[in-house]
Design brief:
The protein is mostly helical. About 65% of the residues lie in helices and about 0% in strands. The protein has 4 helices and no strands. The two termini are about 25 Å apart.
């Protein structure tokens, strides 16, 4: 997977066709995990606490959902 660059979501979708479902789940989880360093800096910003809490919740939800889907995919 290293070295592959997608410019649109359609390119990614076309590339994933025919690949095992775990590939898409792994990409989703790794993408969610890459957000953590970005949101860590958010807590040191001067933005409102409500915005910081909302961003934290969104990051954790994305990480949790993609992580659970990777380990326990739906039957479909």
């Amino acid at each position: 997977m290293a070295g592959i660059i997608f410019k649109t979501s359609d390119e990614l979708e076309a590339w994933l066709k025919g690949k095992p479902g775990e590939w898409a789940q792994t990409i989703a989880h790794r993408t969610a995990m890459r957000v953590f360093p970005l949101f860590a800096g958010e807590w040191q910003s001067k933005r409102t606490i409500k915005r910081k809490q909302g961003l934290t919740l969104a990051v954790f939800r994305a990480s949790l959902i993609s992580g659970v889907a990777l380990k326990n995919p739906t039957p479909e």
